[in-house]
Automatic annotation (TrEMBL):
It holds the Pfam family BLOC1S3. It comes from the Eukaryota. PANTHER family: BIOGENESIS OF LYSOSOME-RELATED ORGANELLES COMPLEX 1 SUBUNIT 3. Coiled coil: none annotated. Belongs to the BLOC1S3 family. This is Biogenesis of lysosome-related organelles complex 1 subunit 3. It comes from Photinus pyralis. InterPro entries: BLOC-1_complex_su-3. Residues 1-26 are annotated as: Disordered. GO terms for cellular component: BLOC-1 complex.
């Protein structure tokens, strides 16, 4: 979840009790720094100094990167056999999960292709059946018409 700051326009607080309510994210647990909260009184002018803000952010980012680099190199130096085995097992687990997910996705793709082919065959069969049924309907309508013509005509002469 991303922590975001809310900026409220107006004058900063005059007491130090508000400083206790502000919490700053620990730099040692985060590799990316989005913002830094500087407690204290705000300047009385409306001018912002973007240069000082940018330089402060760059210093914080640089120190976090240096900590990350030095922390990782120190960590690998003091690894025990257990840590190395755990890292190898984690790498193997990642490889196995990747292979498993690839095989599942490949099999699902093959199944979808087969289902798609069957659906296309069914669609073709249905289209042929619809065409045949329309022709049958037209033929039956013509037969009905001719039958009514035959039945309505007087093929036997009147006897008097």
């Amino acid at each position: 979840m991303i922590n975001s700051s809310v900026i409220i326009s107006g004058e900063a607080s005059e007491t130090d009790s508000d400083d206790d309510n502000c919490k700053v994210k620990d730099m040692t647990t985060s590799t990316s720094i989005q913002a830094a909260i500087v407690t204290g009184e705000d300047s009385e002018s409306d001018d912002e100094n973007p240069g000082s803000i940018a330089s402060a952010v760059s210093v914080l980012t640089q120190s976090a990167q240096e900590f990350t680099k030095s922390g990782l190199s120190d960590q690998h130096k003091s690894d025990s056999l257990l840590h190395k085995k755990l890292r190898e097992c984690n790498d193997q687990l990642c490889t196995d999960l990747d292979a498993f997910s690839q095989s599942v996705i490949t099999q699902a793709g093959k199944n979808l292709t087969a289902i798609d082919q069957e659906l296309l065959k069914s669609q073709n069969t249905l289209q042929t059946a619809v065409t045949s049924l329309r022709a049958l309907h037209l033929n039956s309508a013509m037969i009905k018409e001719k039958l009514q013509t035959i039945l309505s005509s007087k093929f036997l002469s009147n006897i008097k």
